[in-house]
Structures are given as C-alpha cells and as structure tokens.
C-alpha cells in the first residue's frame, strides 16, 4: 500500500523543522528534541488518578507512574515501557498514550522510567524493566492492582524491553504475565532485513539512526547477541505469555517484529500479528493525528480487556 497520507503529513511536518538527524545529536540534544516534538501530538486525556512511585532497582531507584481509570479496583495492569532507542524518551513523551490506554482498556497503566543509555548501558534498562514489573506484582494491593492480572507492553525499544521481561520472568520464576503487547518492537541487533533495505531512509526512523541507538545501548557489540538484548536470538521461546505484535509497513523494524511473532508462534505461543499498512515507525503515539494510531490503540485495549476478562 502507498504511504498513508496522514503519515506523509507527519514526515513532511517533521522534516520542515529542519532538525539534524539523531545520529548528529548528543543524547541530551536528542532527548530534548523528542520532548519538544511531543507537544505537537496534541492534548492528552484526563485520567482519574495519576501517581508516581519510587521503585528500588540495582544501584538506585526508578519512577513508575501509575494511571488509574475510573471505576472500582483492584484493576488489572499493563506495565508499559516507552520507546526511544533506550537513549531518549521518558514519562512525559508517552504520557498521552498511557492515559489513553488506561481509559480504553479499563486497567492501570504503570509507565516505567527506566534508566537510559549511554549513561546506563545494557543490561541496565532490561534489569530496571524486570525489577519494576516484579515490584508491581509484589505491591499490587498498594497500587490498587490485581497482581494475578498483569501484562507488559511497549513501543519500539520499549517493545524490546517488554519481550525481554517475559523471557526474564520465565527464566527467573515469575511474575506470571498474561499478555505481551509489542508495538513495532526491536527484536535483534542487526540491520540487514528486507525492511531495513527498503525503508533505510525517508520514514523518520532510519538505519543509521538505529545504529546510533544500538551503539549507545550496548557496552560492546557482542552484547547484541544476548537474548535479553535481542529476543529474536533467544534459543527457546516456549513458556512465554500470549503476544499481540503490531508492525508498521514503512518501518525498518517491520521484518524483525514479524520474525519474532513467527518464532513465538512456532514455539506454541498464541500470537496475534497485525501489520498496519501505510504506517511509519512511531505512529502509535499519534492518536490525535493519525486514524490508524487510534485503531492500534483500540486493538491493544481490546486485547487487554479480553485477556483480563
């Protein structure tokens, strides 16, 4: 399918800003750029309660922001990890989509402000993500969460972390997870798939940009072969929770997300895979601007509601 007209408008508007590509920025500059561009995503929804919690992790604490919907708890919960190549992004950049998911799915969304690279290289983000998930499972009553009904999810690098958390939970004896919602996830340290070849440039996320993100995330290149960095390379994927995998047609990461869905299915994991035609990487946050972003939000919310029913 041709590039969606709404996606093209996003690309044109972004290019008109005249910003340098991410690989020409420092991490600090790239973080500020993403925060600035987040304001263009439009207004956010009201949620009855938003609370921050400090969660202990190895070497410090991370913030978990809990969005609680209307109604009586305890609620099921989605533990959400934001995208941004493990280098950029934060609670603010994904505030809008977390609010919308909490309302649409009628669940608590617990957004994890994991520590970023290059200040904290692999495996810090993955370990933070797992520690936060385990803490939420252990403190459900304090959070108004039913710890028996937990899911994990995230977009891009956040999808990578969500996949890693499911592997870690299986390998380390819990917590039990009911669903993994992976939105155009990074699943391997590699840049030679067909979607990388066909969409290397021109669609906001580029192959050169992804190399920059990976170079900042990994302490050394060989870490990219570790399963918690590249879930697609995990020797076994059995025993993992059901998966919803969303990909975008004009995304360099499209093929690796779909390859991961295929490997999960081969391992006996129930999988729903949806490729959004005409879409670009990053569209999921654009619920005020792109019709298919709202459709994807609704698909994730419906999967959560069905899982938690």
Secondary-structure blueprint:
Elements lengths: L4 H12 L10 H12 L10 E9 L2 E9 L6 E7 L13 H11 L2 E6 L10 H15 L1 H4 L1 E11 L1 H15 L7 E5 L10 H5 L8 H11 L25 E8 L3 H13 L4 E10 L10 H18 L1
Helix pairs in contact: 3-10, 4-6
Task: Outline the structure in words.
- The protein has 309 residues and is of the alpha/beta class.
- The protein has ten helices and eight strands.
- It has an eight-stranded mixed β-sheet, sandwiched between helices.
- Helix 3 crosses helix 10 (291-308) and helix 4 (124-138) packs across helix 6.
Strand content: 15-25%
Instruction: Quickly count the helices.
Output: 10
What is the count of distinct domains?
1
CATH class: Alpha Beta
User: Could you say which structural class the secondary elements and strand pairing correspond to?
Assistant: alpha/beta
Tell me the Rg in angstroms: 18 Å
String of helices and strands: HHEEEHEHHEHEHHEHEH
Q: Report the mean per-residue pLDDT as an integer.
A: 98
């Amino acid at each position: 399918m041709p590039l969606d007209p709404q996606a093209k408008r996003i690309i044109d508007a972004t290019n008109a800003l005249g910003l340098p590509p991410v690989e020409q920025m420092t991490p600090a500059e790239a973080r500020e750029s993403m925060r600035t561009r987040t304001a263009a995503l439009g207004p956010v929804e009201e949620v009855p309660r938003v609370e921050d919690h400090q969660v202990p992790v190895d070497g410090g604490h991370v913030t978990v922001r809990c969005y609680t919907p209307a109604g009586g708890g305890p609620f099921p919960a989605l533990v959400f990890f934001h995208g941004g190549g493990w280098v950029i992004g934060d609670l603010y950049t994904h505030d809008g989509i977390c609010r919308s998911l909490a309302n649409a799915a009628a669940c608590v969304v617990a957004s994890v402000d994991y520590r970023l690279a290059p200040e904290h290289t692999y495996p810090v983000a993955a370990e933070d993500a797992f520690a936060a998930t385990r803490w939420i499972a252990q403190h459900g009553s304090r959070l108004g969460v039913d710890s028996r009904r937990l899911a994990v999810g995230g977009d891009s690098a956040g999808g990578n972390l969500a996949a890693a958390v499911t592997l870690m939970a299986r390998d380390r004896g819990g917590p039990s997870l009911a669903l993994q919602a992976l939105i155009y996830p990074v699943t391997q340290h590699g840049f030679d798939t067909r979607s990388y070849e066909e969409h290397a440039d021109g669609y906001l996320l580029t192959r050169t940009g992804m190399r920059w993100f990976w170079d900042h995330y990994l302490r050394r290149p060989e870490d990219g072969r570790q399963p918690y960095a590249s879930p697609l390379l995990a020797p076994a994927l059995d025993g993992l929770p059901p998966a919803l995998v969303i990909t975008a047609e004009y995304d360099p990461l499209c093929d690796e997300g779909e390859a991961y869905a295929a490997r999960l299915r081969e391992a006996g994991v129930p999988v729903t895979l949806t490729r959004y035609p005409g879409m670009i990487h990053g569209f999921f946050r654009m619920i005020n601007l792109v019709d298919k972003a709202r459709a994807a939000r609704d698909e994730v919310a419906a999967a959560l509601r069905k899982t938690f029913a």
